[in-house]
Amino acid sequence: MFAKYFEEYQIGESWQSKGRTITEADIVNFASLSGDWYPLHTDAEYARQTPFQQRIAHGLLVLSVGSGLLHFEPGIVVAFYSMDEVRFYHPTFIGDTIHVNLEVTELTGHKNETGLVTVRQQLVKQTEEEVATSKVKILVNKK
């Protein structure tokens, strides 16, 4: 999605990523990297006693995987500028496959021949349940 110069985007334009299945290894590796060993994510016996009845992926892991499903073209993308209004709606379990839907909602010129592309980001799993949403701004170059 982020492979075009600022002037090439249009409000309302949308894009869908490929899918990615969340694995137990993803959760363990993320817990190791982040230090977040909360038992809802890492302790199967604990998680069985919760309303989810099984381990769930960390919310930040889900957002990170979503970011990895996007395409950021070097030389065009300057920076990941911001993420606001993050909401989590449904859990992501081991074995769920998520993808990202983006819709351009705002285009704002910025300094130094750059512009901000604002998108509504939706993370959706194979059941079509919305897992999370956010407003993301990417700083891209102008032509």
From TrEMBL:
Query: Could you tell me which residue ranges the MaoC-like domain spans?
Result: 11-122
Q: Which Pfam families match?
A: MaoC_dehydratas
| SUPFAM superfamilies referenced in this protein's UniProt entry, alphabetically | Thioesterase/thiol ester dehydrase-isomerase
Q: Which domain of life is it from?
A: Bacteria
Q: What is the name of the protein in this document?
A: Acyl dehydratase
Q: Which organism is it from?
A: Siminovitchia thermophila
